[in-house]
From TrEMBL:
Protein's membrane topology: Multi-pass membrane protein
Signal peptide as annotated in the record: none
Compartments, record wording: Cell membrane
Keyword set, alphabetical order: Cell membrane, Membrane, Transmembrane, Transmembrane helix, Zinc
Membrane-spanning intervals of the chain: 12-35, 47-67, 73-95, 190-211, 217-237, 249-268
InterPro entries: ZIP
Lineage top rank: taxon: Bacteria
PANTHER family: ZINC TRANSPORTER ZIP11, ZINC/IRON TRANSPORTER
Name of the molecule in the record: Zinc transporter ZIP11
Record-stated family: Belongs to the ZIP transporter (TC 2.A.5) family.
Length: 269
C-alpha cells in the first residue's frame, strides 16, 4: 500500500494530506456539540501539546531533511537551512503584521495587526488561521519532496501529516468551544472552528507545486516551513498555553507532544 501511495502525484498526495489535517481540526471542533465550556487548564494542555508536536516536526521532518539534501555543498551545507529557516520566520512576521488577530486567552485590547472593528470571535479564528498556514505548507513541501525521493521520503511526509493531524484535533476543540463561550451558537462555533484550518489543504497544494516545479528550492522550502512553524510556536502557542497559570501542566504537555512526534518520526520515518 505504501508503494502505491508513494507512486501517486505528489501534489495529489499533498492535497489529500491537507484535507486529512483539516478533517482532524473539524472533528475536534465538533466537540462543541457536546461541551459548552472548556476548562482553561485543559486548553493550556492542548495548546502545549500542539507546541511540542510542532517543535519536533520542525526538526525531524523538515530541518534535518533540508540539511541532508544540502550535504553536497560541503562546508556550506547549512546555508539552505539557515536561509529558509530565517525567511520562514520573516514571512510569518509579515503575515502577523497585515492580518488583524487576537490570541486565545488574551484580552481584546491586546489584538495585533491593523486596527479593525472585527468581532472578537473573528479575530480569534484569524489567529488560528495564521497558525495553520505553515502547517499546510510543511505538509505540502514534505510531499513535494516525494518526487525526488523514495519510499522513505513518503513515509516521513505521511508521519508529518499524521503528527499535525493529531495535534489539530484538540486544537479544533480549543477554538470552537471558547467561541461558544463568547456567545456564538454551536453551529457557528463549529463552522468557524473548522474554517480556521481550511488554509491547510490550500497551502499544502501550493507548497507541493513549488517543490515539484522548482526542485532545487526543496532544502530551502523544507527549512522555510520549519522556520514558520517555530515562529508560531514561540509567538503564539507557548504564550497562549501559559495563560492564567497552569505553567507546569502546559510545559509537561509540550514535552509530551514533542516526545510523541519524535517517536512517530524516528520509529516510522
Amino acid at each position: 500500500m505504501i508503494a502505491y501511495f508513494s507512486s501517486l502525484n505528489p501534489v495529489l498526495l499533498a492535497l489529500l494530506a491537507g484535507l486529512f489535517t483539516w478533517g482532524c481540526t473539524a472533528l475536534g471542533a465538533a466537540l462543541v456539540f457536546f461541551f459548552k465550556d472548556l476548562n482553561q487548564k485543559m486548553t493550556n494542555v492542548m495548546l502545549g501539546f500542539a507546541a511540542g508536536v510542532m517543535i519536533a516536526a520542525s526538526f525531524w521532518s523538515l530541518l534535518s531533511p533540508a540539511i541532508e539534501r544540502s550535504e553536497g555543498m560541503g562546508i556550506w551545507s547549512f546555508v539552505p537551512a539557515l536561509v529558509g529557516f530565517t525567511l520562514g520566520g520573516v514571512f510569518l512576521r509579515l503575515v502577523d503584521r497585515i492580518i488583524p488577530h487576537l490570541h486565545l486567552g488574551f484580552p481584546e485590547k491586546e489584538k495585533e495587526g491593523p486596527k479593525t472593528k472585527l468581532h472578537k470571535s473573528i479575530l480569534l479564528v484569524l489567529s488560528i488561521t495564521i497558525h495553520n498556514i505553515p502547517e499546510g505548507a510543511a505538509v505540502g513541501v514534505a510531499f513535494g519532496a516525494v518526487l525526488v525521493g523514495d519510499t522513505e521520503t513518503f513515509v516521513t511526509a505521511a508521519v508529518l501529516a499524521l503528527g499535525i493531524g493529531i495535534q489539530n484535533f484538540p486544537e479544533g476543540a480549543a477554538v470552537s468551544i471558547p467561541l461558544r463561550g463568547e456567545g456564538l451558537s454551536r453551529a457557528k462555533s463549529f463552522w468557524y472552528g473548522q474554517l480556521s484550518a481550511i488554509v491547510e489543504p490550500i497551502f499544502a497544494v501550493i507548497g507541493a507545486l513549488l517543490v515539484v516545479f522548482v526542485t532545487p528550492i526543496l532544502p530551502y522550502a523544507l527549512a522555510f516551513a520549519a522556520g514558520a512553524m517555530i515562529f508560531v510556536v514561540i509567538e503564539e502557542l507557548i504564550p497562549e498555553s501559559q495563560v492564567e497559570g497552569s505553567t507546569d501542566l502546559a510545559t509537561a504537555a509540550t514535552m509530551a507532544g514533542f516526545a510523541v512526534m519524535m517517536v512517530l518520526d524516528v520509529a516510522l520515518g
